[in-house]
């Protein structure tokens, strides 16, 4: 586990977002065998030297952006534009 990524997730201001960010992080690691690092103040996942995903929080949503989803080798679990797709969750 990357301590900088752990610190980002644990430091998310809205308590409801923390478990979602933890689940997204776990999902990315299980689905695509990525390397994680903190870049641009957010957790980024890398695969084969390319961006794979980024998790970000905002006032009213948590987002997962997948890059090059078709090339992640995750068995077609991800759909969207070839360059990237973002999915937001807002429980309100």
Descriptive overview:
It is a single chain. With 92 residues, the chain is α+β, with helices and mostly antiparallel strands. It has a single domain (3-89), classed as Aspartate Aminotransferase, domain 1, CATH 3.90.1150. It is 26% helix and 32% strand. The protein is built from 2 helices and 5 strands. The chain has helices at 3-10, 17-32; strands at 35-39, 42-47, 50-57, 62-66, 85-89. The chain has a 5-stranded antiparallel beta sheet. Strand 1 and strand 2 (42-47) form a beta hairpin. The longest helix is centred in the N-terminal third of the chain and has 16 residues, at 17-32. The termini are far apart. The model has no long low-confidence stretch (mean pLDDT 76).
Features:
92 residues; alpha+beta; Aspartate Aminotransferase, domain 1; 5-stranded antiparallel β-sheet; 2 helices; 5 strands; 26% helix; 32% strand
Task: Annotate the secondary structure layout.
Elements: H1 3-10, H2 17-32, E1 35-39, E2 42-47, E3 50-57, E4 62-66, E5 85-89
Antiparallel strand pairs: 1-2, 2-3, 3-4, 4-5
User: What is the number of strand segments?
Assistant: 5
What count of helical segments does DSSP give? 2
Order of SSEs, N→C? HHEEEEE
Radius of gyration: 12 Å
Helix and strand content put the structural class at alpha+beta
In CATH, the topology is named Aspartate Aminotransferase, domain 1
Q: What number of domains?
A: 1
CATH architecture: Alpha-Beta Complex
> For the residues shown, what is the average pLDDT?
76
Strand order of the largest sheet: 1-2-3-4-5
Which word captures the global form?
Answer: globular
- What is the CATH class name? Alpha Beta
Helix content: 25-40%
Regarding quaternary structure, what we see is single chain
Q: Give the DSSP E fraction (strand runs of 2 or more residues).
A: 25-35%
